[in-house]
Amino acid sequence: MDIAVLIKQVPVSNNVSVDPETHALIRASAEGMINPADLNAIEEAMMLKEQTGGKVVVFTMGPPDAEKALREAMAHGCDESCLITDRVVAGGDTIATARVLAEAIKKYGQFDLILGGALSADGATGQVGAMVAECLGIPHICEIQSIKYDEAAPDKIEAVKKVYGERFLVRTSLPAVLSVNFGCNVPRLATLRSTRAAKNKPLAVYTNADLNLPEDQVGIKGSPTAVIDSFEPTGGRMAEMLTGTPEELAVKLKDLIDEEKGNL
Amino acid sequence: MEKKRIGIIGGGISGTCLGYHLSLYDNAEVIVFEKATIGGASTAKSAGTVCLFDDSLKNRYWDVRLYGFESYLKMEAEEKGSAGFDKTGTLVVATNEQVEATIKTGIALAKAAGYSGEYITDKDRIKEILPDISTENILGAGYTQDDGYFDGTMISNTYAKKLQKNGGVIKTGVKVTEVIVKDNKVKGLKTSEGEEYEFDYVVDCTGPWSKFTGELVGLDVPIWHTKAEAFFLCPPGKKLSYTFPVLKYPEFYALRAGDNIFICKSHLSMDLNNPMHAGQWDPDKLPETGGTDDYFIDFLLDQLEVKVPGIVDSGLVSSWLSYRAEPKDFLPILGETPVEGYILATGYGGNGVIEAPAASRDLAKLIMRGESTPLLEDWAFKRLL
Amino acid sequence: MANGICIFAENYNGKLEPASAELVSAARLIQETTKEQISAVVVAKDCDGIIEELKNIGVEKIYAVKTDHDILFQDDAASQVLADMIRKIDPSSVLIPATPAGRSIFSRVAMKLNCGLTADCTELLVGTKEDGSYYIKQNKPSYGENVFVTIVTRDGYYPQMMTVRPGVYTIPEKSEGNAEVVYMDDIQIPESRIEIAEILPQEDSTDSILSAEIVVVGGRGTLEDDNFELVKQFADKIGAAIGGTRPMVDTETIPFDHQIGQTGLTIRPKICISLGVSGAIQHTEGIKDTKLFVAVNTDENAAIFKVADYGMVADLREVLENYLKL
């Protein structure tokens, strides 16, 4: 089974602030890492590869520096990688980004399964996977806890989906896109050796010239939505201090927990 | 007795330890200003190997090493966990005769102070202590069971608490923005909160930031940064079946961190003329994790394949980069400066946890009593002028 | 001309999801300025109960498609049906709960309609364009909760479509409603390639700290006396997994694979209650993206209060003893 994994390079630290005058984002550190849930997607891909053979190709769109994330993904076991990098496609919203990823997947080759992490640690939209599926005209299932492939039914895949406080066994035809939950498995670690080996694994670089998407379909120009302002939350980053007797504090704690539990 | 007001900039191991030693004097009024959290920056990234003998500090400074070690043992005895002691013992590997001689002297000193220590040439015994090691191409190894890892962040917080108990004040989340100097004499400082404080002495305990802190009084503090690149490794079997000791080679050192192994390129293998190793950077731009250079992977792989092949296929759990800050002779800068009342307690490099107690003891004496010590003479700022 | 505020009535087992009911409150705030009608789209096997619920919380018009089975798990089919409905209704805005179903179905709808989808809004405000027409300022958190951004749907793209974080708006008070109901019988329901094979039995998730939604984290303070026993009872009571800092691992109070921080794990629970943790970076780096983070510590200067949402300067023992009595 050939599997594509979509990953995103996210900042190591979400510690950003806003310039009070220009309203531009100021990042404390430029250091990037693979979005944590994407590592769970890579691990699912590796387990399926061990069962069925085939190859795992990891895709990302981003600045040239995103090569680091791809090399790291290959250190975790992915066989090949593809970086889509181009000023023209940069800055797009989820719609414009999904178009680019879908086109890159099509150009790269045939895949039986496409995996991604459920939510990114920075934007946390949880939308791109489903949008890629729509572009490719194939099914998408989110909130995946585990994936099972049965050789006896090679055109289908089974997965456990967790939603409404229940677990459902779902089945779909292939190819399909599955969005994998953070923490659903324990990703294997890269080693010193695999990190060195990843330096020599294939990395294809696509620009929009390779994808041939109309410029009004990608990047900022092709995005139906636009960010017009950014601001820091009021009240700063200090915890709101609650006071009272231990009895009162216990009640306050219970209220907070019960309220948030209602939203789970 | 006349009160002496002392403002300390920086709440890492240097600042909290000095603050505590000052607070032992009745007439000291101490305030520590920390812009983030206590023991949270370079101190938190320190490997914290406080060993009875290794190459981190020359045997000539045995008193400094012993005083540091025993200060933390005492702290740990007063309240378990307050110094974060992990008593794993230390194995120092001799790969050449020079190292062997240093180890042997160190062992003799440790034994004279009442601790255990032996130089082992029986390779089977070395393998008993560290089964994953390769004993080829080594002469022997020094071993003691008595020392190990101490947690710099825990220690800093414990010193901070003790200093508060003695009447000192800790201000976290407060950045010093200005040092007030009049007629070449320190008068006080101003903070990011807009407050102004009067002090007789202001002490720079900002380690990697000292270059910037010195600029507040127009002082060029000759601090360089060497990179401390560290990895946390998960052993191939997930959990080692033996107690992994602090392991020292001239090129790198390692210690256990829970079930993982922390491994770092050694201090003395850093080349100040290699821009990959050393420079003058902005520590505010250091990421909390990550940031290591690619060459470091190759370096570690090559080292481990030869020296500790049993853990070469460990998983990479996480990594970080920290700056050791020191002058070009790798020794700290303590004491007076050309600006009257502006004191330095910085440049500890990779040895802050080991050296801070003895250095602070002596520096407190200098500030409170005006008495210098041989150590302060050795590590004085004027040696660099 | 597109007009109206349309709400996606997410439903499960014949009941309206609370997160969808909350959207009516968001819509009413928009309506105060724009005076538009508030409508809802329902796709379900048992529409009647859901329609009743929508009527009673103030929805003014309800568009429904009855299906022979619930199709909201089948994104491919559901998104086709909903896209067709919205094309016909032609609203100026569509509000969707930021739930797994809302996100994944409407991501496809947005692509079909080429209209954009703003994720996880926590505040919707009305702005006025130069020509006097209205638009919605869609405010949402980014980079955890460190920054908020305002997003708009650009001119030429419509409807304005956004998901709204559950729990931000409250469910309107119930009242006797009188909404017009339109059954859109002409809408085709396509075959789905997704099937639900079965509902699986519940599993005990508190063993795995990584996937746990609720985590209690203990620090050195929990090692004193028999505090840890209290922590365990507390964790049981709220259904939480227990993690801890290094001192707890060193004393073998918790296993190493439950240590949190740089030398341990990074966890992303929805709810995190930290007890007696001072908060060195090695530890706070290990907890991210929480929705609720409460810290209890006796030291008012503890660094943990800089990362938590709520803080209590208190003896954890006293708080927990009282909590267990509640």
- Tell me the fraction of residues in β-strands of chain C, as a range: 25-35%
Provide the structure class of chain C: alpha/beta
Helix content of chain B: 25-40%
Low-confidence residue ranges of chain C? none
Number of helices of chain B: 10
Briefly, what CATH class of the largest domain in chain C? Alpha Beta
Q: What is the terminal separation of chain B in angstroms?
A: 35 Å
Choose one word for the global shape of chain B.
globular
Short structural description:
Chain B: This is FAD-binding oxidoreductase. Chain B: Residues 6-366 form the FAD dependent oxidoreductase domain. The complex is a heterotrimer of chains A (264), B (385) and C (326). Chain B has 385 residues and is α+β, with helices and mostly antiparallel strands.
Q: What does this 3D model show about the protein?
A:
The complex is a heterotrimer of chains A (264), B (385) and C (326). By secondary structure, chain A is an alpha/beta fold. In chain A, helix 2 packs across helix 5. Chain A is globular. The two termini of chain A are 35 Å apart. The mean pLDDT of chain A is 91. In chain B, helix 1 runs parallel beside helix 6. Chain B contains 10 helices and 20 strands. Helices cover 29% and strands 27% of the residues of chain B. Chain B is of the alpha+beta class. With 326 residues, chain C is α/β, with parallel strands linked by helices. Chain C has 2 domains: 179 residues, Rossmann fold, CATH 3.40.50.620; 112 residues, Rossmann fold, CATH 3.40.50.1220. In chain C, strands 7-11-6-1-4-5-12 form a 7-stranded parallel sheet, with helices on both faces. A 5-stranded parallel sheet of chain C has the order 15-14-16-17-18. In chain C, strands 8-9-10 form a 3-stranded antiparallel sheet. In chain C, strand 17, helix 8 and strand 18 form a beta-alpha-beta unit. In chain C, helix 5 packs across helix 9. Chain C is elongated and about 70 Å long. Chain C: GO terms for molecular function: electron transfer activity; flavin adenine dinucleotide binding.
Topology:
The complex is a heterotrimer of chains A (264), B (385) and C (326).
Chain A: E1 3-6, E2 9-11, E3 16-18, E4 25-27, E5 32-34, H1 36-52, E6 56-61, H2 67-75, E7 80-84, H3 94-108, E8 113-117, H4 128-136, E9 140-148, E10 156-163, E11 166-173, E12 176-180, H5 192-198, E13 203-206, H6 208-211, E14 225-231, E15 240-242, H7 246-261
Parallel strand pairs in A: 1-6, 1-8, 6-7, 7-13, 8-12, 9-12
Antiparallel strand pairs in A: 2-5, 3-4, 9-10, 10-11
Helix pairs in contact in A: 2-5, 3-4
Chain B: E1 4-9, H1 13-23, E2 28-34, H2 42-45, E3 49-50, H3 62-78, E4 90-94, H4 97-112, E5 118-120, H5 123-129, E6 140-144, E7 148-149, H6 152-165, E8 169-172, E9 176-182, E10 185-191, E11 196-198, E12 201-204, H7 210-215, E13 224-234, E14 246-248, E15 252-257, E16 260-265, E17 278-279, H8 294-307, E18 315-326, E19 333-336, E20 342-346, H9 352-369, H10 374-378
Parallel strand pairs in B: 1-2, 1-12, 2-8, 4-14, 12-20
Antiparallel strand pairs in B: 3-7, 4-6, 5-6, 9-10, 10-11, 13-16, 13-17, 13-18, 14-15, 15-16, 19-20
Helix pairs in contact in B: 1-6, 1-9, 3-9
Chain C: E1 5-8, E2 11-12, E3 15-16, H1 18-34, E4 38-44, H2 47-56, E5 61-66, H3 75-89, E6 93-97, H4 100-113, E7 118-121, E8 123-128, E9 134-142, E10 147-153, E11 160-164, E12 180-183, E13 194-200, E14 214-218, H5 227-238, E15 241-244, H6 246-250, E16 271-275, H7 281-284, E17 292-297, H8 304-307, E18 310-313, H9 316-325
Parallel strand pairs in C: 1-4, 1-6, 4-5, 5-12, 6-11, 7-11, 14-15, 14-16, 16-17, 17-18
Antiparallel strand pairs in C: 2-3, 8-9, 9-10
Helix pairs in contact in C: 3-4, 5-9
